[in-house]
Amino acid sequence: MSVKLNFANKEAAISAPLPPCRADEYEETGWGVENFGEDFKKLTINRPKTTGHLVKFDVKYCGMCHSDVHIVLNHFTGTMYPIVPGHELVGVVTEVGEKVSRVKTGKLVAVGCGVDSCFECDMCKNGEENYCRKGGQTHTYSAKKTFGHTGGNLETQTFGGYSKTMVVHERFIVLLPDNAQLAKVAPLVCAGITVYDPLRHWGATKGDRKMTIGVAGIGGLGTMGIKIAAGLGHHVVAISSSDRKRELALSKGAHEYVASNDPKAIEGQTGKLDLILNTISAPHDLQVYVGMLATNGTLVELGGVLTPLPSTAVHAGLPEEEHFRVHCWWDDVPPGVR
User: What is the pTM of this model?
Assistant: First the structure.
């Protein structure tokens, strides 16, 4: 069965043939797209040899993220061809460099969306390498090797997990329990952490408060969000554009289901949701979801939407306005008017 791949933005794609394998690299088999507009096929790529802080592992499983599709097809622009995607990798360590201290051969490990960063800024030092001040972390594939910790030829791009083996700096290795079921772990290092992080940030993991949490969009991210939020003991309201995914959402642990094309169902949730994880990746009106928020509720945008989302400005309430006026009066902060 042939499937047409809908590539886009050809003028913004980056293509360059791979240079010959160097002495500090080895040839590996990957599965990807060699040039813009072509089909997937077996490719030969170059991986760095295992020295210094590098860790090599056999890739046992690699999840397929929705963003893999977008990046391969250059929907986000700037895709570097040839490309071997995949940023949900799990496997078994086979080699470690002489400076590696936290990983041993035979251990089960995972790698997510990043493989390098500057290591020096406040974000990196605080374990937030994805927010690296010097341009963000280096993505697991189709990214320039900006910071030099990836090994091998730094003039070539990174290659992901649709491959037999992976080599990465130990800092970006996620250690797994010895009894981990690898086939089930892979999506956790992308979809799992994507929804867990805002749950943790907004207080849903503390255990001292039970929240009503909405999950908009019932796809890969959304079903993961439902599972985790419900597992943490919260009341979960699944939200989708129609009634089609009701059974799926409820089977994943949702307590209620709302079809956003049903005005009465939407009205029934007005002001009830403490937190909404919006995983929708298609254009949509945010105001539908803003109206469901409880007082001081939070709407977190997680879906990879390629166009700006419309919404309506929200004004401050009377207590805030009163506080603001008193502050300006006492601190002599007049408006800039004539």
Answer: 0.87
- Cα(321)–Cα(329) distance, rounded to whole angstroms? 12
Q: Which pairing describes strands 14-15 and 80-81: parallel, antiparallel, or unpaired? A: parallel
Q: Residues 42-80: pLDDT tens digits?
A: 999 999 999 999 999 999 999 999 899 999 999 999 999
Are 253 and 227 in contact by the 8 Å Cβ rule? The answer is yes
Q: Does residue 329 register a pLDDT over 70? A: no
- Give the separation between CA 278 and CA 184, rounded to whole angstroms: 23
Q: What is the DSSP letter of 76?
A: T
Closest to 92 in 3D by CA, of 138, 50, 57, 120: 57
Question: pLDDT for 198-232, tens place per residue?
Answer: 999 999 999 888 999 999 999 999 999 999 999 99
Instruction: Tell me the CB-side half-sphere exposure of residue 312, using CA atoms within 13 A.
Output: 7
Question: Rounded to an integer, what distance in angstroms lies between the CA atom of residue 161 and that of residue 184?
Answer: 16
